[in-house]
Specification:
heterodimer; A: alpha+beta; Arc Repressor Mutant, subunit A; BirA Bifunctional Protein, domain 2; 19 strands; elongated; B: alpha+beta; Phenylalanyl-tRNA Synthetase, Chain B, domain 3; Phenylalanyl-tRNA Synthetase, Chain B, domain 1; eleven-stranded mixed beta sheet; nucleotide-binding (chain A); Phenylalanine--tRNA ligase alpha subunit (chain A); aminoacyl-trna synthetase (chain A); metal-binding (chain A)
Chain lengths: 501, 580
């Protein structure tokens, strides 16, 4: 038989006739008590020892009690001062006694509350009477404390409970284990047991030498907590964007790409946004201090200007708003990624624009809003459009029902809406999956003829937009988007947020 | 989006639906596109709606739309108008910037407190929307009995008022909410309303002013005179509008007239006499009769309606739906049925046949339509730019970096000063800034020219969180570049920081190498100087002879500036460098 060294030592120190405690075995073997305990359990599992367990209660005196052993219990000190002051015959004023006894601070109250309880006398209207028959020298609580301090045991449960209530002792329960050899162990010892070496770590040398086959591995406490580490992870808003992109690619959409800083022509004029539209004032947009765009397709600019001034079609009307080429050419941060849709639909971005087509982007847009828990100055817009012959609003509704169903939102309502660039237009509402609230989840519509005709598109195009952050907040239930997106983000929140898939 | 406050009792009264509950009203309004946002202190419903149907900016207009929706009204309604008794004379001196005027007389209006509040609200909301904060059009409503018209000639019984331009200190009047006689210039300097709208006219050489025989009574677009103030006792009203576009003020006037008609008023025409038919008046001509209630006509084919809504309808159904939208329609029978649709003069949103189809759809009920998934096959796919960005991000996350997402806008202080670099110098990140014109927040004044400043700010804001903090971001950085069509060069930059008690140059470079190895890109790292990094522990990242980034240990002065108490090593690399 081979056993690890510690188990063999315990086996040799134990007896078949006498039950020996773990502490004594530890003393005899020179091992730590916890090592002996672990070895004993392993030996028991192998049927080599039996273990008896008894529960022992022990009491230790506190620092306060040690102080009282030196100075006397406060109630005893009060009694002695009272006797000295003659309170055994005439009541004495408390103030006088406290001064004489030298009690201070919380000790005063301790003395008063225990004085009467222990029969040292009585207190009435601030005057103390002492019982001349009381004997402070045999105070049982003092004696018990003194005994415990000398390592004796105290059997009187009432006294112990009282001392525990007074915070003068701390009691604890301990399981004492004692070990007895089994017959199998005696047999094995007689036959002789070899020591099996235990190792902490598996080393390359052990593997190459084959030594691993001869060793026992030290057992670890596998139930214990390991130190915490932070792995790398993709930002949760990026994860949400990925999921949106997956869904859209699966629905046959191709991704668009284009400039963040762009001419107002692409951002607004192509979209049939009148130049005096409130969203185009400097309060809402981020104009940039750079020279105007160097080139825009000349014929397209003319057609767009004509649509603004005169409308399109035989009886179409234009806006009654000023239009200047200078404003169209000024550079600003895009307020929506519909600028990309315009670039693609015009063919200017190099895309083939023969129908049918589906395109999307999940990219940043910039709005001069007030920064608050639900509004950022820059956020991600999901933008998508479908171009085909003969699309109806029913196709638009069916497409969005399909998209939102992928995110668990299945009861879309279409609220008729107005955008300068789409007609009909709808705001999309859905029920929040957890709160049950009706929330706005997108804006959509069929691009107007005033948008499509100048671009040279002769079929139907339906489009929609949605803030990615809104979808994120719906999915994760975040309350303040600034914790997630931007330099005020909280790393802890990002680290602890559960992965959604 | 505009919000209109509507008293639900008034709405019930004006629609004749006294028994509708608030909940029923809210539902009916939602279907019209008016969303219930809450209620005012006085218990009025706050209704938000898109800014197309500006004729719904008051309870009268909302009630009119509901009556059409309920089917209680059908087709186009045009109020009768009486013949003109008043003339708006426009003098040669009128400011060039604001040459147009229009208006109407309304008699016998029953102005209860609610009605007066509603008309005042309508006026304010029209100013905010169509009027573009009064710049494009401004409304003045006056108590007619307080006006004394000038007699034009002995042969005519007509009264007149005159719209002209005057010197800023050319006359005095007592403005609303004031006791003192002030000149227009004084009003702009001293009166609260004057101060608010001073910017609209302060550059004008001559200020707009309207006179009757007694004198100056209106200073558009700023404020009316106190003499003609409208109260609940007023019965006869004079409405004048001035602006920069005739069509716009005419339609604002129409919306006001329809609301007053709903309050029992009788509309009376006014004549507008411009000084000539040239220049700004070449389209309108010298003499106009206002308000202009002429119907606008548009045509739309049956096929276009069915195609857009994706349903089949009979021609009679379509006409019915038009009439329930407050429109009139006639159609010609034949192979291609075409409707000729008459649009009432309070509608400002009908530019194209599409807008009529939208009305048909709303009257039909868009939510009644059965959604269908379009039978259109296309092939999806990601753009190469985002694919490489994602691949780089996956490599960095695999190397243990926490991926971050920061703003592209930043302040010059964060982008340059706190990183110890100067704009316009050679150091990476020191490119010429793309500056925001007239920024509102001092925290966001330009686009960032590199990513590391954002990551340093995240470290600064997270010193209470556990370390190591190994962070990365792949995001936009930009600088001015006149070789670009937009004059802005935009690129995706990879930033990475290792904030840990033992971070060294090697830690950053090891990860940089691992990243570049993933993409098969060989780098060299010759020593350079960069003020953000410790001298002697910073290198340029060079790929095929071109500088594409920087790697090093962040300078202690930068760390201290960001309240960091441990070393940080970092690199920044142009994402395009990984695209061989």
């Amino acid at each position: 038989m081979r056993l690890p060294e510690s188990q063999l030592a315990v086996l040799e120190a134990a007896s078949a006739t006498e039950s020996i405690s773990v502490d004594r075995l530890a003393d005899n073997t020179g091992l730590k008590p916890e090592t002996v305990t672990r070895a004993a359990f392993d030996l028991r599992d192998d049927g080599l020892v039996s273990i008896d367990e008894t529960v022992q209660t022990s009491a230790e005196i506190t620092a306060e009690a040690t102080e009282y052993l030196e100075d006397g219990l406060p109630e005893v000190r009060l009694y002695r001062a009272a006797i000295d002051a003659g309170a055994d015959t005439e009541p004495v004023q408390m103030g006088q006694l406290i001064g004489a006894s030298g009690l201070a601070g919380p000790q005063v109250n301790i003395a008063l509350s225990n004085f009467a309880r222990k029969g040292y006398g009585s207190i009435d209207s601030g005057a103390v009477s002492a019982d001349p028959d009381a004997d402070p020298d045999t105070d049982p609580e003092h004696n018990a404390l003194a005994g415990l301090a000398d390592g004796e045991t105290v059997a009187d449960e009432d006294i112990l409970a009282q001392l525990e209530r007074r915070d003068l002792i701390v009691r604890s329960e301990q399981t004492v284990r004692s070990v007895t050899l089994t017959d199998d162990a005696v047999t094995a010892l007689m036959e002789g047991i070899e020591v099996a070496e235990t190792v902490d770590r598996l080393t390359p040398e052990m593997l190459t030498s084959g030594e691993w086959d001869d060793v026992e591995f030290t057992e670890y406490n596998v139930a214990a907590d390991a130190p915490s580490i932070e792995g790398g992870r993709k930002h949760i808003l990026r994860q949400t964007a990925d999921r949106v992109k997956d869904v859209l690619v699966g629905m046959g959409f191709k991704e668009m790409e284009g400039p963040h800083a762009d001419a107002d022509f692409w951002i607004n004029d192509c979209l049939f946004m009148p130049q005096d539209h409130p969203a185009r004032t400097h309060w809402d947009r981020f104009a940039l201090d750079v020279p105007p765009i160097q080139s825009v397709p000349e014929d397209l600019v003319e057609r767009v200007e004509d649509a603004h001034r005169n409308g399109v079609g035989e009886d179409g009307d234009g806006y009654h708003s000023p239009w200047s080429r200078g404003f169209a050419e000024a550079i600003a941060l895009r307020g929506h990624t519909t600028s990309l849709s315009m670039r693609y639909l015009s063919g200017y971005a190099g895309a083939d624009i023969e129908p049918p087509k589906r395109y999307f982007s999940v990219e940043k847009v910039y709005r001069n809003d007030t920064l608050d828990p639900t509004h950022l100055l820059e956020f991600f817009q999901i933008e998508g459009w479908v171009m085909a012959e003969d699309l109806s609003v029913r196709d638009l509704m069916g497409t969005f029902e399909e998209f939102y169903a992928q995110f668990g939102i299945t009861d879309i309502q279409f609220k008729p809406h107005y955008n300068p660039y789409t007609e009909p237009s709808f705001e999309l509402f859905g029920t929040h999956p957890t709160t049950g609230e009706l929330v706005e989840i997108g804006n959509s519509g069929m691009f107007r003829a005033e948008v499509l005709e100048p671009l040279g598109i002769e079929c139907d195009v339906m489009a929609w937009g949605l803030a990615l952050e809104r979808l994120l907040m719906l999915m994760y239930g975040f309350e303040d988007i600034r914790d997630v997106h931007g330099t005020l983000c909280d790393l802890e929140l990002l680290r602890e947020t559960e992965v959604l898939y | 989006m505009p919000v209109v406050d509507v008293n639900p009792d008034e709405l019930r009264r004006l629609t004749g639906k006294e028994d509708k509950s608030d909940a029923e009203l809210k539902n009916d309004l939602f279907n019209l596109g008016l969303e219930y946002e809450g209620e005012t202190e006085d218990g009025e419903m706050q209704l938000e709606f898109a800014p197309d149907r500006l004729d719904r900016l008051s309870v009268e207009g909302v009630a009119r739309s509901l009556r059409y929706q309920y089917g209680d009204d059908r087709g186009v309604y045009v109020p009768n108008t009486n013949d003109a008794d008043w003339v708006f004379e426009v003098d040669e001196s009128v400011p060039d910037e604001r040459p147009y005027v229009t208006g109407a007389i309304v008699r016998g209006v029953n102005l209860t407190d609610d009605a007066l509040d509603s008309i005042i609200q309508l006026q304010e909301k029209l100013h905010a929307t169509m009027g573009r904060k009064r710049a494009k059009g401004a409304i003045g409503i006056h108590d007619l009995t307080m006006l004394k018209g000038e007699v034009l000639s002995e042969s005519s019984t007509a009264n007149s008022i005159t719209y002209k331009g005057i010197e800023p200190d050319g006359d005095r009047f007592v403005a609303l909410d004031s006791d003192a006689e002030l000149t227009p210039a004084d009003v702009l300097a001293q009166h609260d309303t004057g101060k608010k709208y001073a910017d609209l006219v302060s550059e004008y050489e001559r200020y707009p002013a309207i006179y009757d025989e007694i004198g100056l009574f209106s200073f558009p677009p700023v404020i009316n005179g106190r003499r003609t103030e409208v109260t609940t006792d007023s019965r006869d009203l004079l409405i004048e509008l001035t602006g920069t576009d005739q069509w716009t003020i005419d339609h604002m006037c129409n919306i006001i007239c329809y609301a007053l008609d709903a309050r029992g008023g009788t509309i009376e025409d006014v004549e507008v006499h411009y000084p000539h038919a040239d220049g700004p008046y070449s389209e309108s001509g010298a003499e106009l009769l206002r308000p202009d209630f002429e119907l606008n006509e548009k045509s739309v084919t049956h096929d276009a309606i069915e195609g857009m809504l994706g349903i089949e309808l009979s021609s009679d159904d379509v006409v019915d739906l038009f009439e329930r939208s407050g429109l009139d329609a006639t159609y010609t029978l034949g192979k291609d049925v075409t409707y000729t649709v008459s649009v009432p003069p309070y509608r400002v949103d009908v530019l194209h046949a599409y807008d009529l189809i939208d009305d048909v759809g709303r009257a039909y009920g868009f939510n009644e339509l059965e959604p269908t998934y379009p039978d259109v096959g296309t092939v999806g796919g990601r753009h190469e730019r985002t694919r490489i960005e994602d691949a780089a991000r996956a490599s960095l996350v695999g190397l243990g970096f926490e991926d971050l997402l920061n703003f592209h806008m930043i302040s010059a202080e964060e982008n340059y000063d706190r990183m110890r670099i100067e704009p316009g110098t050679d150091s990476l990140g020191a490119g010429e800034p793309v500056v925001i014109t007239g920024p509102y927040s001092e925290d966001y004044t330009q686009l960032r020219s590199w990513v590391l400043p954002s990551l340093m700010m995240v470290l600064e804001n997270n010193t209470h969180r556990s370390y190591p903090q190994d962070l990365t971001e792949i995001g936009l950085a930009a600088k001015v570049d006149t070789d670009e069509n937009t004059n802005v060069s935009e690129h995706r930059s990879i930033g990475a920081v290792l904030a840990r008690h033992d971070a060294t140059y090697e830690d950053a470079k090891a990860r940089l190498q691992a990243l570049c190895d993933d993409f098969g890109v060989a780098i060299e790292t010759p020593a350079i100087e960069h003020p953000s990094f410790i001298p002697g522990r910073v290198a340029s990242i060079v790929v095929d002879g071109a500088q594409v980034g920087v790697v090093g240990e962040i300078h202690p002065a930068v760390l201290v500036e960001h309240d960091l108490e441990l070393p940080v090593s970092a690199f920044e690399l142009d994402l395009a460098a990984l695209n061989k």
